[in-house]
């Protein structure tokens, strides 16, 4: 069975699977005027799936007014240049990841672990470079579908962010937390600073939300904050 083109997470918030049913996801936030904000753009080949997801929502690339990236990794920013070209929308990313997006190169990975040092020699980590139209800061509230708050969760990359859609109390974690066969942190070999990743993820337990969308894994539409807090508490004891 083919994966769905788009999945409703909350009113006006939709997950668009770009690999499998939930292995790599983008998100579309639909505003009251019909305009769309995309969050993450998948791998370089993802735009076809994103456009199909938009079509399932009755939307066209021309409806996209902004592209927000949670960070500068190929599975999040790989399709950004093509989607920016198709839509004419500016790309927004945290200031600390902007240079990586504009050079099309992932931030360095954590070399404090031996496997990280080996992986650094093997890693390509490149994606099509794209210009950044807006450099985001922690706590900034974007004028998107009633308010989209930027929550800095660095560590996975220097400028990694999560996003809180305040009107629907929906959290988009980016790669701060995966939901693949249960919640987990991203693999340390893909992080710039794995210890910092674990520390800053705890910010997500302090926010108020009911639902959570994950770039990797299916959404949680009921009791998401409690589920995230249980994971964080358990991981702190590990």
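Sequence proposed for the structure above (238 residues):
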């Amino acid at each position: 069975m083919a994966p769905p083109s788009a999945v409703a997470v909350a009113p006006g918030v939709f997950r668009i699977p770009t690999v499998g049913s939930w292995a790599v996801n983008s998100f579309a936030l639909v505003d009251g005027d019909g305009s769309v904000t995309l969050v993450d753009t998948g791998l370089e080949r993802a735009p076809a799936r994103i456009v199909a997801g938009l079509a399932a929502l009755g939307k066209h690339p021309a409806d996209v007014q902004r592209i927000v990236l949670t960070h500068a990794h190929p599975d999040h920013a790989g399709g950004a240049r093509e989607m920016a070209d198709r839509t004419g929308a500016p790309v927004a990313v945290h200031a600390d990841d902007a240079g990586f997006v504009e050079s099309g190169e992932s931030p360095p990975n954590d070399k404090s672990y031996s496997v990280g040092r080996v992986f650094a020699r093997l890693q390509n980590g490149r994606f099509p470079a794209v210009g950044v139209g807006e450099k985001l800061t922690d706590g900034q509230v974007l004028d998107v579908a009633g308010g989209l708050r930027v929550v800095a969760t660095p560590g996975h990359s220097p400028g990694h962010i999560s996003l809180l859609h305040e009107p629907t109390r929906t959290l988009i974690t980016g790669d701060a937390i995966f939901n693949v066969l249960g919640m987990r942190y991203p693999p340390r070999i893909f992080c710039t600073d794995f210890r910092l990743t674990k520390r800053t993820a705890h910010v997500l337990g302090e926010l108020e939300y009911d639902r959570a969308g994950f770039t990797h894994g299916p959404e949680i539409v009921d009791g998401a904050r409690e589920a995230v807090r249980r994971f964080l508490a358990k991981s702190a004891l590990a």
